[in-house]
Amino acid sequence: MFKKLLLSLFCTIVIHMVFAEKKYSAAIDEKAIREVVNDAIAWQTENMPTRGRAIWNPQFTGWADGVFLSAVSDWAHYDNSRDFKSWYGKIAEENRWEVGNRSLNPANDIAVSIMYGRIWLDDPKPYYIVEKVDRWNEEMVLNLFGGWVPLIPTIERLDYQMKYYPKTDNLLFEIPQNQERWCWCDALYMAAPTYALFANITGNDEYREFMNREFWETYKALYDKDEKLFYRDTRFIERREANDQKVFWGRGNGWVIGAIARVIDFLPRDYYDRNRYTNLFQEMMSRIATLQDENGYWHTSLLDYETFTSPETSASGFFTFGLWWGINRNLLDKKTYLPIAIKAWEAMVAAVHNNGMLGYVQPIGDAPQNITAEKNEVYGTAAFALAGLEVARYASENK
Question: Hey, what's the signal peptide range on this chain (predicted)?
């Protein structure tokens, strides 16, 4: 017990030392929220990483940058005072609207497509552009559609994945072929919202049904009903932490909370399985809320804070997003969850350096590890932007 108190005190001192001169306010006020989120996004756009960007995760079309670009497109729909739309719009054009490479983990390839969908929704062109076209006759496509072809590569990939990838009968991650399906919890965030959104855009209900089926297959394979948390993948089900607790990765569960929230936003109100998503969201958040540390953060291992002492802001960011998102949609009781949500937002703002960089982001990985305040990655800033968007929405509606 004494050791635990010392570790907690040490983390508190380090956080305050690193961010002692922070200029950002964590007030639940739209002006303050816009300042810190815009600065964090602006810093990230000027410092897009190249490390970890390879053929399986290419820059600007791979999953990591795709998560960030899609989150920025959501934020810019609310506040485009820094003209982020021009920034990601140029990237989309330079991408030629393509998704990621056909990687071993194809769910990752379509994370960027939320941005393409947002661009189209902000300036929709005639509905018939989503019908099948001869992809290789690019001149014809440009003439017919005035150069507006952002949806076609995604639609082709969604169709391809639906047709060819659900060909395994289990989701054991250890078998490489199984990774064509959503056999790791991150995949829910990368793919499920894209299928749900494009079902709305195109009117193709098959996308929604495919998403729904695959989502609940992943749930059956990876959800621990006792702990109300997801394993990252099947390799972790039998593993234990140093304290003999089960291994539940912070960001992995953050991906799931983010996925559920975004899917619900894209589902029709009368969708027959909508309540399954809302029930799962409420069940998970009731558990996650109890795991917040005294400084407002969550860690890379959700059940072993003594080993993994440092806060982690990609997990914390998605949980903060989930808290405010749930409160705003009346899915989480305000009296119970608002104090937790405020504490979480204060913690996230405290992790932003003076120059706008969000610190304490775990690098690309799949398991718990200790990190430092200098660590940053784009998906951490993405989670922060989504959280800020929901805090701003709350501030606007509760003046």
Answer: 1-20
- Write out the DSSP string of 330-374: TSS-HHHHHHHHHHHHHHHHHTB-TTS-B--PPPS-SS-----TT
Residue with tokens 């960030």: 68
SS3 state of residue 246: strand
Whether the Cβ atoms of residue 222 and residue 236 lie closer than 8 Å to each other: no
Range 48-76 average pLDDT: 92
Cα 180 to Cα 34, 61, 107, 172, 292, distances in angstroms: 39, 18, 8, 11, 34
User: What are the Cα distances from residue 307, in Å, to 2, 7, 341, 380?
Assistant: 14, 10, 25, 22
Q: Within the chain, what is the greatest distance between any pair of CA atoms?
A: 72
- CA–CA gap between residue 119 and residue 89 (Å, rounded): 8
Give CA separation, 208 vs 54, 58, 216, 225, in Å: 30, 27, 12, 25
Residue 105 tokens read as 């983990």
Distances in whole angstroms, Cα of residue 189 to Cα of each of 253, 257, 280, 293? 10, 8, 15, 25
- The candidate with the shortest Cα–Cα distance to 299, out of 311, 290, 285, is 311
> Active-site positions?
186
Which whole-number Å values give the CA distances from 215 to 192, 210, 225, in the listed order?
7, 8, 16
Structural domains in the chain, CATH included, are 2-397 (1.50.10.10)
The tokens for 39 are: 């600065």
Count of alpha carbons within 13 angstroms of residue 128, beta-carbon side: 5
Question: pTM here?
Answer: 0.91
Angle between helical axes of 205-222 and 250-266 (0-180°, round to 10): 150
Within a 13 Å sphere around the CA of 20, how many CA atoms are in the beta-carbon half? Answer: 5
The pLDDT tens digits of the residues spanning 114-173 come to 999 999 888 766 443 444 444 445 555 554 444 446 788 999 999 999 998 878 889 999
